[in-house]
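Minutes, project check-in
Item: structure for the 533-residue chain
Input as provided by the requester:
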Amino acid sequence: MSYLQPFVRQVKPRTESYTPPVDKVQSFLTEGSTTEATLMENVIVACWNNRKLKKATFAKKIVNDTDVKNWHKISKLATYNGVKLGTKLINDPQVVQALYEFSSLLANSAPPGATGTMSGAGRSDPSTSAFWKEHTGKGSDTSKADIMIGKSGISVKGISAVLMSGVAAETKATALAAFARAPKKPLPELQQKIITAIDDMVGSSDRIDIEAPQEAEEKNTRSMGQLTADDALKYGLQKKDGGFNDDRWLTSGNIIIMQNPDRGEKVTDWTKVNYDVIPAIKVKDADGKSVELTDDAEKKAIMARVNAAAGNAIETAKKAKADLERDLSLAFNTTGVKEAFAWEAMSGWDKFNSGPTKEGNPPVQGQGGTGFASQMLAFDWGLGRIAWYEIKEGGPNVKTTATQMKTKFDLKSSSYKASGDKAGYSFSQTLRFGIKYIKDKTDEAGLTMEERTHEAKQMLSEGLLNEWSFWEKLKKIWKTFVSALKVYWEKFVNFLKEMKDKIVEVFDSGLNSILNYFELDVTVKVNTKVKLL
């Protein structure tokens, strides 16, 4: 149906990419390929193992090698002086000469330690580390080593090479490994910084003034018992114009007096009341003028202080998290981490390391497992250029590759993954629960105070309490309210201290636990294709 393609494009355009012919010819090797690139690995093995033979002997052995024959049958990329070797017979002098020169090139350019017999690394995928499996879901994967000399794994690449798949799970696992392997270890410093912030927050929270001023108990108790407009409405105590102006308590005797239409506008002078019966109180402002008392002024003031202090604590914690996120991003985007990222992408150390791991963190330093590569061998399809690269942590080849990869790390919000019976809550969840707890409990204490005050007023109006008992009951209600807030606040402060302990715990568990607890995820932008020749 190719004749329809132009019309299909008109009806439904599609994004197409153009690959220049030269790039098609200089096709690069990719891990796990079963094409000519993979078969060429076996040709390299044959050429290496026969490198010490004289040309005539080499020719007899190489043209009868099964792996070389299989490669030659499908070869479309390999050339010699511009001639495609696949178009010639395998025993053609040009084919033999190309492979003989290639064999000599391998021997002459090999690093000092490469002296043993070479073999294929095998086509079966080796097992990955527990760390790698946790983050990628892969229990086995394509080996970084394509061929072996003794126990040294060698990764075979073309002129250009894709060092990793670029899949998000793989890049994240590589990023975590790189962060752990980088020379500078920033986590202890970052831990101390956020712990100091939380300590300061807890310290300031311990010093919150929940107590009212010394005179507040009498002032508030007097205010609690004072007649309100609602009381006046309930008992018909308003003036004829609907107003209300009386500060007497709601005793049964006062109700009778105040219901008298001839009572006038007189306000009780509390300074003349017998102190043994009802304590007197004078409430004046800074100018000495009488100040109107509201029923819940002090209560609201204390509740406001508690909620404001809790809010400040939460904002401090949020800022500490934001600072941590910024500092972690800076710590990731250092030269050391970027070079460690390139090293892992080239070598597969943590990908195949069989050492012990804990809670999603890279294995401890040890011997890399099967699949690990310590050398990289790059060649071109003209068979005239070869380069051996030592894959050494922090080495010059790793540094050059890191520059080409142009890695950039970012942190983004993620969801918390609770695992295990003692997983607990994330940092953000903990903050939300904390602020909700103190707000709910503060409101609960305020509501309880209002209800008990209303009950006391009702008992006073019904003659079940005298004025002195009423006064004492109000003071008790007030003290209970303040005491309850102290208890709730102490629990909130303990809650902050427990959060600090949790932060210490997750830092001690490693970067993966830190990212999970603070609901962060690392994303990577990287150029996975690098030029080697």
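Outcome recorded: Residues 467-509 form the longest helix (43 residues).
No further action items on this chain.
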